[in-house]
Each structure stands twice: as structure tokens, then as C-alpha cells.
Amino acid sequence: MKKLLLIAAVMLFTANVFAQKQAIFPFQGGQQPMLDFFKTNFQPSADVKNQSASGLVILKFTVDPKGAVKKIVVYYADDVILAQNAATLLQQTDKKWIIPSDEKLHDFILTVNIGFQQPLNAANSKKFMAFYTKRSPLVTHNQIPMESATMLPTVTLTYDPAA
């Protein structure tokens, strides 16, 4: 009976260790290095700056065991120019992702909020209002299966539209 209890305790402890082993943050270094990477490497395109564009982008991407970004899908974007900037930035994270060792591919969902630094002057406010009224959101019209995707924390990026 004691042996059975000992074996059960060891198995529970081992299962707990394996569960924690897979719970590490999927970006090399953790959450803060991921957020820092995105903020440091964000270079808004001329279109984004000229239009004082601001909005939300939701991306799903697939990572292989080597950490390479294999496929990027836009689930939602307030405008195509925002989606292009977010996808370009995400491609720069190639080889920086960590997936569970027992998986061949893993899907992640990343929300990127792109905005400009406050305060805006009158000219940039007009540009933003023009952008906002003519923006063309990208939306998915198909179902989005999410049972095996990992939702990452929102990345908030800001830029100076006058720079």
C-alpha cells in the first residue's frame, strides 16, 4: 500500500513538473522582452504616418519547432495599412518563438494596437479624422477555430506622426 501511495505521489509530482515546463512564455526571454522587441523594432510606414493612422490588428500565426513564423493570417484589421505594418513586424520575430516540444506546429493569436503619441496638432487631427472616415476594416467571414491557439498579450505601439 505504501509503495502504491509513493508511486502515485511521484506520478502526480512528475505530471505537475511537465505541466509547468510547457507553461513557459512562448517568446525567447519572456513577455517583457517580446513587448520590448515590438516597441523597439516598430517602424511605421510612410502611409501610416501621412494619414495619422491608428487602430487594431488581430493576427494568427503559426510557428514551427525551430521558432520560425510559417504563416500569418489577418483575422481583423481596422485598415490594410495597419495590417501590413503589424505583419511586417511579426515577420521580424522569426526564430524567436518557443513551442511545446511535443508539437510540430503551434498557432498564436496576437492583438496589436497601433496609435500615435499624444497630443496631436490640428493638421494631424484632420489627417486622423480623414483616415478614420475612409478606413476599410479587414474582417474574416469564416469561422475561426481556436481550440489549439495561444492568445498572447496585446502589444501597444505608438509613433510620432510628425517625425
Provide keyphrases for this structure:
single chain, 163 residues, alpha/beta, six-stranded mixed beta sheet, elongated, TonB C-terminal domain-containing protein, signal
User: Based on CA inertia axes, which overall geometry fits?
Assistant: elongated
Number of helices: 5
Number of domains: 1
Number of beta-strand segments: 6
Mean pLDDT equals 85
What's the main sheet like?
6 strands, mixed
Structural class comes to alpha/beta
Helix fraction bin: 25-40%
Show unreliable segments: 17-21
* End-to-end Cα distance: 73 Å
Order of helices and strands: HHHEEHEHEEE
CA-atom Rg in angstroms: 21 Å
Strand portion: 15-25%
Blueprint of the fold:
Blueprint: H1 2-21, H2 31-41, H3 46-51, E1 55-63, E2 69-77, H4 80-91, E3 106-116, H5 122-134, E4 138-139, E5 149-151, E6 155-159
Parallel strand pairs: 3-5, 3-6
Antiparallel strand pairs: 1-2, 1-3, 2-4
